[in-house]
Amino acid sequence: MMASCSLPYVADAGSLPATLPTVHDIESAEKIFSDTTGRKVVGVGTHFMVKYGVQVDPLEGQTMLFLAQSTLIPVPRVYAMFQNSAQDTTYIVMERIKGSSLDLEWPRMDCASTEAVAFQLRSIFGEMRKLPSPGGYCSVGRRGLPDGLFWTDDPANPYAGPFDTEAELNSAIILKYTENGLSKHKASYYTRTFAGVFQGHKPTFSHADFQRKNVLVRTPETQADSAHPELVIIDWEFAGWYPSYWEYARAIFACGRWDDDWSDWVDEILEPFRNEYAWMEILLREMWS
């Protein structure tokens, strides 16, 4: 298993579709796909997509490299990854996928197309589940879990692990709950409850942010290809080996307004963990309200 790659990373010259963009090319790009605090995603020319910023973690690029080298899971190619230490900025230069996101395509899809997408996604997540953990609950390189639930402004990130056991992970969640200034008495209740609800779930490789916006549908080359959409999974910043319920709980939590049938298809794509989701929903809404 690939533990990490040293920075700067540059793919073999023969695999590059064009000359890599410079920092100036990236930061002056006019095609902006996302611009949030600490991270920005831009298109540079026809070949490159770049995610960069002070909140971008090299772990995301290293996870995509690991998946590309170890599996058939469809991820964007990573062409380069480097840091500007003076600005504390990380740059991940990736393949620019010609297509659109599944959240835009979904309302236009007929029943046959949605079935085909669900079948392909079920296969992709099944492949992910086969990846053995390097030891416990962790991310690539046996580092801490990057899910936002564990986030703190402490650079040491004391709540993220890695964890040898699910009980240790549960304890970290409770500690983070109290660090947020929430009731210690309710934390005590959660401690008793989680011991029964969140137990017996093996470390399972998870994307941890499965939403339609993070699935790209490649533009078909021919009319015949349109009957079999090719998918690419993006935004791997939270990925790692979480308890087996985590993917489902996070995916259902992300259903947001519940204004269409997406949750029905999540139940088809992932193994449902309804009880675990219900408790995760309560916890997340309380911690992030």
TrEMBL record:
List where the protein spans the membrane. Answer: none
The parts of the chain that form a coiled coil are none
Among Pfam families, the record links this protein to: APH
Query: Which InterPro entries is this protein grouped with?
Result: AGP_Transferase (IPR051678), Aminoglycoside_PTrfase (IPR002575), Kinase-like_dom_sf (IPR011009)
Q: Which residues form the Aminoglycoside phosphotransferase domain?
A: 60-262
Q: Which domain of life is it from?
A: Eukaryota
Protein name as catalogued? Aminoglycoside phosphotransferase domain-containing protein
| Naturally occurring in which organism (per UniProt) | Trematosphaeria pertusa
What broad taxonomic lineage does this protein's source fall under? Eukaryota, Fungi, Dikarya, Ascomycota, Pezizomycotina
